[in-house]
Design a protein that fits this description.
By secondary structure, this protein is of the alpha+beta class. The N and C termini lie close together (8 Å). The protein contains 10 helices and 5 strands. A hairpin with a 4-residue loop joins β3 (213-226) and β4.
């Protein structure tokens, strides 16, 4: 497949297409393949702003007639996030909420079946990372918080949140401040015409260590359906980052979060 010409990429980036425009920003603004930066210091665990890109949309395909499939069909009209009970059914959702409450140290954790499954899973992951290496692993803390599988789970959770139209949880997968150079309103508006997407995770190689950080590349293929019924496919990668043993790092920085994205259309 011939790579898109730079002029075509620029045109698409500026065209305002609801999903393609956002995804192609990864090709326009993303950093090149990351090399550990000897100038990156522990006192700046967020790293340079130029090392980031942009976004996409949500999880695995669902059988026709399932709660998730029905929700996907009406996603463009939905006024609020899809609840976990709607997505998984009451029994399965309650099991996730119970696990969430078992591991969460929060006084009022978001472990409620009325919230999106992505929000519940994010609280489980946050809690497991918070107590990682502090005694025996808590039951249900799988995959291990520092593993490459946990990095891939962030990408899956990101798409799950987008598919549920829980844009707040999706935003948080980029870290405490969300995607770089985007407001929450801009981020949300980018998915106004996205009905559903499916992300497939490719084979992952071991991560790379930089100055005080660990980076994990997660290859993806994204199939998207817009609200006019048209389909798009993108391939590329997300780069996940976590701070590694840096004094003063926040719990959020010690967790895997999306650092950059590079996605290109498949023709």
């Amino acid at each position: 497949m011939m790579p898109p010409r730079k002029s075509a990429i620029r045109s698409l980036c500026l065209s305002g297409l609801p999903l393609a425009g956002l995804l192609m920003l990864g090709a326009c603004n993303a950093a090149p393949d990351r090399q550990p930066d000897s100038q990156e210091v522990a006192s700046d665990p967020q790293g340079p702003a130029s090392a980031s890109a942009t976004t996409s949309a949500s999880p695995s395909a669902s059988p026709a007639g399932s709660p998730t499939a029905l929700a996907e069909n009406g996603a463009a009209q939905r006024s609020g996030p899809l609840s976990c009970a709607e997505e998984l059914g009451a029994t399965a959702a309650q099991r996730r909420a119970d696990l969430c409450r078992n591991v969460s140290p929060a006084t009022r954790p978001p472990c409620n079946v009325a919230n999106s499954c992505a929000m519940i899973e994010d609280e489980i992951a946050r809690s497991c990372a918070l107590f990682d290496s502090k005694g025996d692993p808590m039951p249900g803390c799988r995959p291990a918080p520092k593993s490459k599988e946990a990095a891939a789970a962030v990408v899956e959770r990101y798409y799950s949140a987008l598919n549920a139209r829980d844009f707040g949880t999706a935003w948080q997968q980029w870290g405490d401040d969300g995607p770089p150079r985007q407001t929450m309103a801009q981020f949300t508006a980018g998915f106004a015409h996205t009905r559903a997407t499916h992300v497939a995770i490719g084979a992952m190689e071991p991560g790379d260590a930089g100055a005080g950080s660990v980076y994990q590349t997660v290859p993806v293929t994204v199939d998207a359906t817009l609200d006019d019924g048209s389909s798009q496919r993108f391939r590329g990668k997300y780069v996940l980052r976590r701070v590694n043993g840096v004094d003063g790092a926040t719990p959020g920085q010690l967790r895997w979060h999306i650092d950059s994205a590079q996605l290109s259309p498949v023709r």
